Amino acid sequence: MNSAILKTEQLCVGYPKMDVLTNVNLCLNSGETVGLIGLNGAGKTTLIKTLLELRKAKSGSFTIDIRSDTPAEDPQGDRGYINALAYLPEKFEPPAFLTGYEFIEFSLKVYGRKVKRDVIRLAVHDMAFDMKFLDKRVSSYSKGMRQKIGLLATVLARCSLMILDEPMSGLDPFSRSLVKDLIKAEKEKGASFLISSHVLSDMEEICDKIAIIDGGGVHFFGLATDFVGKSVAENLERAFMNLILNNR
User: Fold this and answer.
1) CB 23 within 8 A of CB 217
2) Residue 158, by phi and psi: left (phi above 0), alpha (psi -120 to 50) or beta?
3) Are 165 and 45 in contact (CB under 8 A)?
4) Chain centroid to CA 167
5) What burial class does residue 112 get, using C-beta atoms within 10 Å of its C-beta: 0-12 exposed, 13-18 middle, 19+ buried?
6) What is the pLDDT of residues 76-105, one digit of tens each?
7) For the whole model, what pTM was predicted?
8) CB distance 224 to 203 below 8 Å
9) 3-state secondary structure of 18
10) Degrees (nearest 5) of the Cα angle 42, 47, 53?
11) What CA–CA distance (Å, rounded) separates 99 from 102?
12) Angle between the 100-110 and 143-156 helix axes, to the nearest 10 degrees?
């Protein structure tokens, strides 16, 4: 049985004079992908920032145990995971003055990783990123290209836990499919993911469990199929719409 890598208990997050979420109880086990689902302003990013200790919890508690059963084995960082947490923010903007190569190498250096350029090139190729842009400054990149570079730098760090806030932002349908394949592949190797996204079809496909956030708390936490079944809906998107309409 997998052990809990992230757990919250009666967690309350928000601002000094306003609660955003109360009594949040979540559990992400090692090797799982958990998805945060909610409307704009529901509190998904506030919760993530609290878990990252970028803001203080108002009450309750959370624990993050990022010890990995698969330590880094390769000094080049090509395989194995390190006991650390990687984060891709919702509004991701890499430094415009760096090239793609420079940004990835700088990001990996933060985690003590040194990855061969051949490995970077292979990862970039698998993400359908135009190779010629790797040596060009990020200022010349489109929104989708900047998002891909951020995702690649995050995943190549090979951290035990990766928190991705709206990772599909700015990506076309083909690129979204590639990102989903990447997340699935990393999870099979032992990585754990906490993902926030508005693309519910993607969440239904890649997440082991989902947390439906609405009305200041977690309305549902568990299997997406269970949530859809209770709503008697055809898919997660319709089940979520039913919940929102019934609560308004």
Assistant:
1) yes
2) left
3) yes
4) 6
5) exposed
6) 444 567 778 999 998 889 999 999 999 999
7) 0.91
8) yes
9) strand
10) 155
11) 5
12) 30
Amino acid letter, residue 139: S
Q: Which tens digits make up the pLDDT trace of 34-81?
A: 999 999 999 999 999 999 999 999 999 999 988 644 444 444 444 567
Across the beta sheet with 18-29, what order do the strands follow? 18-29, 4-15, 59-64
Q: How far apart are CA 12 and CA 235, in angstroms?
A: 30
Q: Compute the distance between CA of residue 162 and CA of residue 193 in angstroms, rounded to an integer.
A: 5
27 touches 42 (CB < 8 A): no
Report the pLDDT value the prediction gives residue 1, as an integer from 0 to 100.
Answer: 52
112-157 tens-digit pLDDT? 888 888 999 999 989 999 889 999 999 999 999 999 999 999 999 9
User: Which amino acid is located at 36 in the chain?
Assistant: L
Question: Which among 234, 178, 236, 173 has a CA at the least distance from the CA of 207?
Answer: 236
Q: List, in sequence order, every beta strand (DSSP E) within the chain.
A: 4-15, 18-29, 33-37, 59-64, 82-88, 159-165, 192-196, 209-214, 217-222
Pairs from 198-202 (Cβ < 8 Å, separation ≥ 24): 198/37, 198/166, 199/168, 200/37, 200/235, 200/236, 200/237, 200/240, 201/235, 201/236, 201/237, 202/168, 202/176
Segment 197-222 shows an average pLDDT of 94
Answer for the pair 119, 195: CB distance below 8 angstroms, yes or no: no
Kind of pairing between the strands at 192-196 and 159-165: parallel
